[in-house]
Amino acid sequence: MSDAVRPRVDLSTLPKRMKSLAVDDGYPVPWFVQWVDGKPEFRAMNPQKLLQALRSKLCWVCGEPLGVHLCFVAGPMCGINRTSSEPPSHLECGRWSAKNCPFLSNPKMVRREDALINNAGMRDNVAGFAITRNPGVAMIWITREFEVFRDQKKGAPLIQMGEPQSVEWYSEGREATRAEVQASIDGGLPNLEAIARTQDGAMEVLNRAVKRFERWLPK
User: Fold this and answer.
1) pTM given for the model
2) Which of 176, 191, 202, 216 has the highest count of CB atoms within 10 angstroms of its CB?
3) Would you say 98 and 104 are in contact if contact means Cβ atoms under 8 Å apart?
4) Per the domain annotation, does 150 fall within a domain?
5) pLDDT per residue of the chain (219 residues) written in tens, 0 to 9
């Protein structure tokens, strides 16, 4: 979250499975959120919930069992490399989050950094290379499968998202335009390219992944 005031949302629009979530200052607290001193720290995931979600196939947002259709909510860089550090959710939970989460739905919101979020208990338990920028758009990756593997550096679990059945895009609580999605890709791709240049053959692999991803952009 940023230092901006978290906007209130219409709780009557919550999907049925999310209605049992705790509410803090007018906003539902996703199941995965870490609680600190009795208050939800929206910026941090609970590491035990991460393992529980993967082992028991639970929705990352509401905590209830998943069905056949799996929904990953992420930025476009995750779509290019088909990798996520966060487990999937129900489609309705993911869509509601993409449209209403203050960070996901507001391109101008900046993630607040402080000693709490940077300590080893909250940031270092996240696998992979974290791109902490606000991507400006939220990607809904709808698939039927995923695989878990280990981050070679940290040993933490990462998720390979399965072949998508469809991909949806949102910004500011509405469907995102092709221009908005492309701007997000242009802003984030240099991060992946910088990593790829440190590994033999990785740039070629990345270029193929970018090309493969183009079919899932808004028309």
Assistant:
1) 0.84
2) 176
3) yes
4) yes
5) 343 455 678 889 999 999 999 999 889 999 999 999 999 998 899 999 999 999 999 999 999 999 999 999 999 999 999 999 999 999 999 999 999 987 665 555 545 555 554 544 444 555 544 545 578 899 999 999 999 998 877 778 899 999 999 999 999 999 999 999 999 999 999 999 999 999 999 999 999 999 999 999 998
